[in-house]
Amino acid sequence: TTAGSYIAKQLEYLLITLLAINATYSLIWDITMDWGMMNNPIAVVEHTVGQCVPLVVSGSGGRVTCMDATLRPRLRFGTALTLVVVMLDVCLRFSWTLRFYEKALFPSNDAYILCTEFLEVFRRSVWNLLRVEWEHIKQTRNSKKNATSTLDGSVGHGLMNSGMMRRALN
């Protein structure tokens, strides 16, 4: 039985390690891929090494702080709310650690499961705010590129047609 309990303890440590790796990887994926933040590491280093004060005036006339350089230049919900959402995601990604305090915090296992499920639904709802914002930014950026290239193509095509018309008329 001591060998069995030793193996069970080792498996528990392995499970905790794998859960921590999974939560950390998922958090990094949320921030970089799903929300499009922290995609410019050079700007992050340039703006955060040494001190964190407003450093650069952006093209729109606004000041770019260290936080703006770290997140992304365009934040529909503002820096403060975005940071709140990121911090909530960090905390809720690791809500599985409540299992270590299950007996102290919850009257039963069912209450623990219900609580963690509600926390996950809340996390996904909050996650969705920044995900939809990032998707909108990408779609807007792509539609501007397509409109510019379509406009350039139609102007060029129109000039070609008018030149052909002049030749045909002469």
Report on the structure:
- The structure is a single chain.
- The chain is mainly alpha-helical and about 170 residues long.
- Helices cover about 75% and strands about 0% of the residues.
- It is built from six helices and two strands, in the order ααββαααα.
- The chain has helices spanning about 1-35, 40-50, 65-70, 80-95, 100-105, 110-170, and strands at about 55, 65.
- The chain has a two-stranded antiparallel ribbon.
- Strand 1 and strand 2 (about 65) form a beta hairpin.
- Helix 1 (about 1-35) runs antiparallel to helix 4 (about 80-95) and helix 4 packs across helix 6.
- The protein is elongated.
- The model is unreliable at about 55-60 and about 155-170 (pLDDT under 50).
What are its keywords?
75% helix, 170 residues, mainly alpha, elongated
Beta-strand percentage? under 5%
Spatial arrangement of strands, main beta sheet: 1-2
Helices and strands, in order, run as HHEEHHHH
Secondary-structure-derived class: mainly alpha
The averaged pLDDT comes out at: 79
The helical percent reads over 70%
Main beta sheet: 2 strands, antiparallel
Shape: elongated
Q: What is the β-strand count? A: 2
Count every helix, treating DSSP H or I runs of 4 or more residues as helices. Answer: 6
* Alpha carbon gap, first and last residue: 102 Å
Radius of gyration: 26 Å
Low-confidence runs? 53-59, 155-170
